[in-house]
Amino acid sequence: MIEAKNINKFYGNGDSKFQVLKNINLTIKNGDFAVILGASGSGKSTLLNVLSGLERPDSGEVLYDSANIAVFSDNELTKFRKNNIGFIFQQYFLLPNLNVRKNIKMGADLVGNTEYTAIIEALGLGEKMQKTPNELSGGEQQRVSIARALAKQPQVLFLDEPTGALDEQTGRQVLNYIAQLQAENGFTVIMVTHNHNIANMANTIISMNSGRVSDITQNQTPLNAYEIGW
Amino acid sequence: MVISIKDAAKLFGISIIACCAVLVCTLFLNFYFDIMQIKDLIVSQQAIAMYEAQISQVKVVCIATGGGLLLTSVVMLLFYIKNYIDTHKKSLGILKAIGYPNIKIAKHFWVFGLSVLLGSAIGFAGAFCLMPAFYAQQNSGSILPEVTINFHVSILFCLVILPAVLFAALAIIYAYFKLKRAVLALLKDSPSDTSTPKKHKDNGKKQLPFIKELQKSTLSQKKSLVFFVIFSAFCFSAMTQMSFKMRELSSEMMGAMMLLIGLALALSTLFIAITAVVRGNFKTIAIMRTLGYSQKECRYAILDGYRPMSYIGFAVGTLYQHFMLQIAVDVVFADFDNIPEYNFDFIAMFVSLAIFIAIYELLIFFYSEKTKKLSVKEIMLD
Ligand SMILES: Nc1ncnc2c1ncn2[C@@H]1O[C@H](COP(=O)(O)OP(=O)(O)OP(=O)(O)O)[C@@H](O)[C@H]1O
Ligand SMILES: [Mg+2]
To answer: Cα(B298) to centroid of ligand 2, in Å?
Structure first.
């Protein structure tokens, strides 16, 4: 279970001090599919970074089964991310000088996963394995970053706008694949999106509004990736 | 725009190098010109011998510093500029995409000339401050008629103004040629900063661990950084050992000064190279850290690969300075009966190697501590 308790986060200091996250409280159960909605600049990415241990909150607790990662040292956080977290960034962050296969292997090796080629095939990247990121389209790069995160076999998968660069068909395929892996392995998914339709796939829908969580609703009847609108 | 004042401040390494090289060369060249002017006043046998000894000493130092310090600092500067522009490729691309003409963007790189000018001007002025003491030292015992300090415009021109103009022009031209590429090529992360990389056969069968593979490709695809490291180690070993040696070939004060300058040059070179290596790989390290690779693994994959290269550079530099000095001595003392004995100096080499290792490891340690705090946030806008 992931719990956020009274999280506050500021950027800048002095006159330019700016509160990005305002007293955030939320709970996400293991195996949940949670979606975070909100306007641009409302703090979604920042919340994701804090929940995943990429950034520390200025106050408050981030509890993973009662372990507070907000007080972890850098080394502890690194180890924690290595063993638990998969992250798909809004800007992909692939290594430009490595080909697709090696970029994905980068995730797989961390947990000793040798079966990662199945993921590459499933995401339709089989023929692009030898290409470097600059030879890929935006959507292909996005799928590589998804494959890299999945190859880590994470307990919790964080996705920041994972379908932003994908067309409807590819977007549905990718979401379907993530949902399928989730059903098989039971990991938790926390996804930021602008696409309200995708929220219909989730059990938990978190709405953000200028740094606050304005609403949390539970969805009793989640749809699959081919049933939602686009 | 492309280069802010803050960026220009980062070019201080250039200024230090220019300053040191110009300082030494000005001292000796000025002395050489001034002593030539009193040539006709020298009559006594003893003074002529002294005069000739002085001239040959100046020649040795000029050939050695000219061939060693000056040449290496020029290459270093060229490389620094290239690396700097390469890492600012993206900003160049954005400006070009907005619609700025190439030359308008490129001309901002004239600041490189400014930092060279600043450094060499300080070196030149410094040389004149040291000159009275230096002249007195060279003519201790007053065997020669008094050598007066004159100001030589040609030295000012050749060592201060000309290099500044040349480096400014070079930077602008290099940036201009970079900009001739398509906008997208500038904006996209290309796999290497040089031409298209050689495609390695990658059949996925030879299963090296990821960090081994990364180490290999870090070295093979950022060749200019590898060269930078080798070259800076080369400079370090050549400069320190040469200045150790210089102590024996000339007066004590000179020797101490050469040693100081050699060390300053060697240190700034090494510092610049390692900074370039770490900056060139910042993004990779940050991404690895967010995935959960430990600091040790990052260091192994990225930074450790350069170490053997630096030792190669050190070895080559050792040989270079040895032969360089030998040639200088041979040429200058060719007409003399008793050529000064010149042997390989093992002590100098070991001392220099020890300093090198200590500094290299310290810098790497410092930077790898710094990467601990590296977050994706910092590279997001990169
Ligand atoms: N390093 C920073 N320093 C100062 N302010 C920041 C920093 N990073 C983000 N912000 C501010 O914090 C706010 C939230 O940013 P965040 O990236 O979390 O938004 P977001 O909800 O993910 O937006 P989008 O949907 O556009 O990605 C923004 O107003 C942004 O300006
Ligand atoms: Mg965002």
So the answer is: 27
Would you state the pLDDT for residue B380?
Answer: 56
pLDDT of residue B114: 87
Helix, strand, coil share of chain A (percent; to 5): 35, 25, 35
Lowest mean pLDDT among A169-183, A203-217, B207-221: B207-221
Q: Is the pTM of this model over 0.80?
A: no
Sheet with A33-38, strands from edge to edge, namely A85-88, A156-160, A188-192, A33-38, A204-209, A212-218
A142 lines ligand 1 (CB under 6 A): no
b/e code B335-370 from CB counts within 10 Å (16+ = b) = eeeeeeebeebeebbeebbebbeebbeebbeebbee
Element holding A9 (H helix, E strand): strand A2-11
Angle at CA of residue B91, ends A141 and B280, nearest 5°: 70
| pLDDT score, position B12 | 78
Instruction: State residue B337's pLDDT score.
Output: 62
Contact A126, A150 (CB under 8 A): no
CA–CA dist B272, B72 (Å, integer): 14
Q: Identify the pLDDT of residue A10.
A: 94
Helix spans in B88-209 (H): 89-98, 102-106, 111-138, 153-156, 162-179, 183-187
Residues 6+ apart with CB under 8 A from B185: B93
Q: Report which DSSP code applies to B343.
A: -
Counting beta carbons within 10 angstroms of the beta carbon of residue A18, is it exposed (0 to 12), middle (13 to 18) or buried (19 or more)? exposed
Q: Please indicate if any CB of chain B lies within 8 Å of the CB of A72.
A: no
The answer, yes or no, to whether residue B197 has pLDDT greater than 50, is no
A57 residue type, one letter: P
Which of A16-20, B69-73, B235-239, B306-310 is least confident? Answer: B69-73
Q: Which of B203, B210, B219 to mutate to test the interface with A (most CBs of A within 10 A)?
A: B210
Q: B371: phi > 0 → left, psi -120 to 50 → alpha, else beta; which?
A: alpha
Residue of B nearest to A96 (CA): B191
* Nearest residue to A86 (alpha-carbon basis) of A72, A106, A101: A106
